[in-house]
Amino acid sequence: MWASGLCGVLSTSPARRQASNDPSVLSDRQEDSSKDMALESPVLLSSYALCGQERSFAFAQPVGEVVATAADEVRPALSAVERAVGQGLHAAGFVCYEAAVGLDPAFTTRPAGALPLVYFGLFAERTPVTAPGAGLGTYELDEWRPSVSREEYEAAIARIHSYIAAGDTYQVNYTLRLHSYFQGDPLALYRDMGQVQESALCAYFDLGRHVLISASPELFFRLSDGRCTVRPMKGTRPRGRFAAEDQQRADDLQHSAKDRAENLMVTDMLRNDLGRIAQVGSVAVPALWSVERYPTVWQLTSTVESQLKAGVSLPDIFAALFPCGSVTGAPKVRTMEIIAELERAPRGIYTGCMGYVSPGSEACFNVAIRTAHLDRESGQLEFGVGGGIVWESSAAGEYAECLTKAEVLRARPYPSFELLETLLYEDGAYFLLERHLERLSQSAAYWGFCYADDRVREQLQDV
């Protein structure tokens, strides 16, 4: 089960790293490259969802870490994580997008950036906690600057259309970066992003110089009792200003032929990916084209489940599924070549994954979208946004979708408030009860309150 929101900070000293060295994973070169990568605070995997069963965990006082900085170290690193968990430890960490070349040599990415390809802290225990809230510091952000101009973005979309016309690809997830200067408490930014997004899959890793802050709403995979669940997210609409407009936008998303086609394309890809590691006949799609509500956007998701074959390892799962098809496109191999050609810089943690592995064959990872990377040394904060480009896509529409996804950066959490509905009670009955309850239900849905109609009616009868 997902550690409701990833609160991840791993603090490790050189001595701890040495104590956990696996010669097949941590070389002297890796030790040198990761000197400024020690966790400075507990890793947080947090849930800011207002409804649901997700939990928040903190992972503190690491007893060791696993690091991979080169492609040929990726699979050994994941194997080392699996061995450590088999000995009773918990592992919380991340895998960068560029680690894909270490899982399948057919994949193409740009050269890796400042972060290691794989990083996991190893912990004796995980602690259920409450997601960070009040009592944190403050922060300031400069204006956000896109990494490409509007003209360059439109040229890239035109190039993708030419590749689609030539039959090279069906869909390309093209992304860009937003940059700002940051000063203050990054944990406060994490709290604000999580509360604004109301995501159950948040993650926070403070590695000293580098801080990773994720408010991702997208599940990469969840592993429980041999069952593997993925929930690709493809299709976005901004929230409406009022209930009727809000519902219209949700309906428009759910019935959009373009968004359904994009979502189905990715869902089919993940069905095939899961089929590589699943028992024959066990892959199923229990939910297709579900609309999920978030404070700033509506998202179109689908759910795919399977029962894993006996003996499937953690490296096998990553080799079959990573990177998630929702952040590449289809077909994956050729499309990743196109991405490497068109995108100017490595993605790093963006569109990689963040999560944990625990004893008892339990694991949960997000797709690292809505994710920021802070470089404390330069003060630069980077945030990736993008979308799936198909033949029907327009540059203007896709650019607008990128801005919609970036609203998580601009918005601030609403002050705490409650909903109040007044009713006239006269002669033993409530006046216009059904209309009052309908209005209350609509308001609760719009603002994300949990509303149980039967409980409300029961309490009204007890007055």
And the CATH topology of the largest domain?
Anthranilate synthase
Low-confidence stretches: 1-35
User: What is the CATH architecture annotation of the largest domain?
Assistant: 4-Layer Sandwich
What is the assigned CATH homologous superfamily of the largest domain? Anthranilate synthase
Assign an overall shape.
globular
Q: Quickly count the helices.
A: 14
Strand content: 25-35%
Number of domains: 2
- Biggest β-sheet, characterized? 10 strands, antiparallel
The whole-angstrom Rg is 22 Å
- The top-level CATH class of the largest domain is Alpha Beta
Give the strand tally.
Answer: 24
Distance between the termini: 39 Å
| Structural class designation | alpha+beta
Q: Compute the average pLDDT.
A: 87
Portion in helices:
25-40%
Oligomer: single chain
Question: Which key features would you list for this structure?
Answer:
globular, single chain, 10-stranded antiparallel sheet, 2 domains, 463 residues, 24 strands, 14 helices, alpha+beta, 29% strand, disordered N terminus, Anthranilate synthase
Report on this structure.
- It contains 14 helices and 24 strands.
- The protein is an alpha+beta fold.
- The protein has 2 domains: 5-410, Anthranilate synthase; 425-461.
- The strands form 4 sheets. Strands 1, 2, 8, 9, 10, 11, 12, 18, 21 and 22 form a 10-stranded antiparallel beta sheet that branches. Strands 4, 5, 6, 13, 14, 15, 16, 17, 19 and 20 form a 10-stranded antiparallel beta sheet that branches. Strands 3-7 form a two-stranded antiparallel ribbon.
